[in-house]
Design a protein that fits this description.
13% strand; Homeodomain-like_sf; Beta-Lactamase; 27 helices; alpha+beta; transmembrane; membrane; 6-stranded antiparallel sheet; 17 strands; 59% helix; 731 residues; rod-shaped; disordered N terminus; 5 domains
């Protein structure tokens, strides 16, 4: 798996995209998360501070109300020291204190003490001495003297009073200062601590921590505890206040706590001690949603990473799939696609070089086939033919062409290549040699820049001079463009049929064969000869084109009626005679339709039908002849493939055809070149001998027609994959 991960291009793409995704994803996620937590923490602490301020303001409002009540009491005549010391009016004063207590929900009890008579404490329930007051309210944490001293404070004071019943009261002493800078008494408000605690619960809500109200001496007046990890006794409030003022936290039992402080003008301090890291429990749903969102984004990112990796890998995958069928199988297949492609391209370059070498060897044969199709008028679209000519390194840009045929003896035919083929270009003319069916006949296609009979004659004369003996030459007329060379070739073949009427070594021009008498009558001798030659060769397209030209001339040129009939019957007679010479039987009804024509259109239509049927029959005969010849050639090869001197030229000599034509027949019928076919036969023979006999390898190689054993061994290994010796051991 790790090998694949290291070498597979797809996994590299996947890893690259994943890393490119996960790094910014992680950084962004952490950044958002940290800021999110920080914002929540800040909001939480700010909310706690705001709640603490609300509690402070609420208590300050109470204290201001207490001050107002104390001021009203100091101005109330029924509650002055005189009335309260009078035996009769004292009860009115007590009733008045009861009214103050009843009219306010801010306190549970109210006590009035004058400094001139500190031994009497007036409440809504009566007046008491300090001892009786302590007993009446069952106070346990102060003595009578301490209580008297507390009531005589000249500054506002607060004190926690504990009772036997477990109740805790916060006693707030408010000095009375009527029309004097010095207080002469005090009003004490006793408030049960639970009222303060209920107000302080809002400062924490669901948070874990403590909230305290401290007096000016840092004594705890009220506390609300929502954390069991530590007690109030563990706290040093001097240190806590110092840290809180510096906006810092404290550590208690190894845990971090945040401090929030609100200080009032009267010296009271309101402080919250909050345990840090509570967001996970308080905002569990929000954090879970955030994590789920991150998880969804992560999976979407992974999917996108996979899709992008597949998209980027697809071209390489397609290339690998394309090269796999052509890649040679080895013991160790490459896992890395890049190496596969590199090896495949190396192999393709090697195959291309081998193919180029093979094409170079077979280019002359391919050129021969190209020109043969062109001479027969069998050519594809112009664009396709131009591409084919370019690949075969043939130049077809000359504006004019003509074709002439050399009729040689056997000796001249064998030396023709050495004496002539290296000198085909002359002045601005460019020539190409085409091997015809007969070994002693050579066709030359010549391109020229201008249509000039003198240049045509000069070129033919030069070719004849290059040869040791002057051959007979028949030539067609100069035509426009390479696409009309089949016309010039057909004219040359027409002239070829008249060689017997001319002396040896003559040069016969097709356009000079017509007599003056025929010209004066408008006799279509040239076209008629082309038509007959096309019929003999089974070239249906050329025959139809020529017939069209003949009847076009008959319609356009002025002739007498007798001259027109004479020409028409001569055409009929020539066609019928040619068919008879070819052995084509003509039915009487067909002959009658030809001679009983009424209009030129009727005659043209009958001739079209007759020529089409005849050309198709000739093509079938030619195909049968070719098949028969191919079978004879193949049988000959199968008998003589072990001969050292077996060659394409020797087969061509034996069957009196050109080497290029013999190669074409073998290639068309078996899909293999002559060389490959012979080599396959020899390879099969060697493999058979290696398997069934114990003859030495050298002897087997010599028997099959090879003299160079080392060269054969290389060919054998290239084809079979092992050497002959290894093949014998394996089989």
């Amino acid at each position: 798996m790790f090998t694949i991960f290291k070498q597979k291009i797809f996994y590299r793409y996947l890893l690259s995209y994943f890393v490119a995704f996960i790094i910014p994803f992680a950084l962004l996620g952490m950044f958002v998360y940290v800021n999110f937590i920080a914002d929540l923490q800040e909001e939480l602490e700010q909310a706690s501070l705001n709640n603490l301020r609300q509690v402070s303001e609420s208590i300050n409002d109470r204290k201001r109300e207490f001050t107002n009540i104390a001021t009203r009491i100091s101005s109330d005549a029924r509650l002055n020291s005189y009335h309260l010391t009078h035996p009769y009016y004292v009860y009115e004063g007590i009733q008045e204190l009861g009214k103050y207590r009843s009219n306010s929900i801010l306190f549970d009890e109210i006590a009035l003490v004058y400094h001139q008579n500190p031994e009497k404490i007036y409440t809504s329930r009566g007046y008491h001495a300090p001892d009786n007051f302590i007993k009446r309210y069952e106070i346990t944490n102060v003595t009578a003297d301490e209580l008297s001293a507390l009531f005589q404070e000249e500054m506002p004071k607060a004190k926690v009073l504990n009772t036997r019943e477990g109740r805790e009261y916060l006693a707030i002493i408010q000095p009375i200062v009527p029309n004097s800078l010095f207080p002469h008494g005090s009003v004490t408000y006793m408030i049960e601590k639970k009222h303060f605690v209920s107000a302080m619960t809002t400062t924490l809500s669901d948070l874990v921590g403590h909230t305290y109200i401290l007096d000016e001496n840092q004594d705890v007046l009220v506390e609300y505890i929502n954390d069991e990890h530590f007690s109030t006794d563990q706290l040093d409030f001097d240190e806590i206040l110092k840290e809180a003022k510096n906006d810092e936290g404290i550590i208690i039992d190894g845990k971090n706590y945040a401090l929030k402080l609100v200080e009032s003008n009267d010296g009271w301090s309101y402080i919250s001690i909050l345990q840090e890291g509570q967001l996970f429990s308080l905002f569990k749903g929000t954090l879970t949603s955030y994590l789920l969102m991150l998880l969804v984004v992560f999976f979407v990112g992974v999917i996108i990473t996979y899709v992008l990796s597949k998209y980027q890998y697809k071209p390489i995958d397609l290339l690998v799939k394309q090269v796999k069928p052509v890649q040679k199988q080895g013991k160790h297949q490459e896992i890395n696609e890049i190496k596969q492609l590199m090896h495949a391209f190396e192999q393709l370059n090697h195959d291309k070089a081998a193919l180029s070498k093979t094409l170079y060897k077979h280019r002359p044969f391919a050129q021969q086939q190209f020109w043969m199709h062109l001479l027969k008028g069998e050519y594809p679209a112009k664009e396709t033919m131009t591409e084919m000519a370019s690949s075969l390194q043939l130049n077809l840009d000359k504006p004019h062409y003509f074709v002439f045929v050399l009729h040689l003896d056997m000796a001249s035919a064998k030396t023709f290549k050495q004496s002539v083929e290296q000198h085909l270009n002359y002045k601005d003319m460019q020539g190409y040699v085409v091997d015809l069916l007969k070994l002693t006949d050579k066709a030359l296609i010549v391109g020229m820049d201008r249509k000039n009979k003198a240049d045509q004659t000069a070129y033919i004369k030069r070719i004849k001079q290059l040869m040791k003996i002057e051959p007979t030459v028949v030539t067609g007329t100069i035509v426009e463009g390479v696409y009309q060379v089949h016309t010039s070739y057909l004219e040359a073949m027409v002239a070829y049929n008249y060689m017997s009427y001319y002396p040896a070594s003559s040069t016969i021009f097709f356009d000079e064969m017509t007599t003056s008498t025929e010209e004066s009558l408008g006799y279509l001798k040239e076209e008629q000869l082309k038509l007959l030659q096309a019929i003999k060769q089974g070239q249906q397209t050329i025959a139809n084109e020529t017939l069209t030209l003949i009847f076009k001339n008959l319609r356009e040129r002025e002739r007498s009626l007798n001259a027109l009939k004479a020409v028409c019957f001569d055409v009929i007679n020539s066609v019928v005679r040619t068919l008879s010479e070819m052995g084509v039987a003509l039915e009487e009804t067909t002959f009658n339709r030809l001679v009983d024509f009424v209009t030129l259109d009727q005659l043209e239509d009958h001739l079209y039908q007759l020529i089409d049927a005849t050309c198709q029959e000739i093509q079938v005969q030619l195909a049968d002849d070719n098949n028969r010849m191919v079978q004879e050639i193949i049988q000959y090869i199968q008998v003589h493939y072990k001969d050292y001197d077996l060659s394409l030229e020797s087969i061509a000599d034996k069957y009196h055809i050109s080497a290029s034509y013999a190669s074409k027949l073998i290639k068309e019928h078996y899909g293999l070149s002559f060389k490959q076919y012979v080599q396959d036969l020899r390879m099969e023979y060697v493999k058979e001998q290696l398997t069934v006999t114990s003859k030495p390898i050298k002897a087997i190689v010599h028997d099959v027609g090879y003299k160079d054993v080392a060269n054969f061994t290389r060919k054998f290994k290239k084809e079979v994959g092992v050497t002959p010796g290894q093949y014998r051991k394996l089989n």
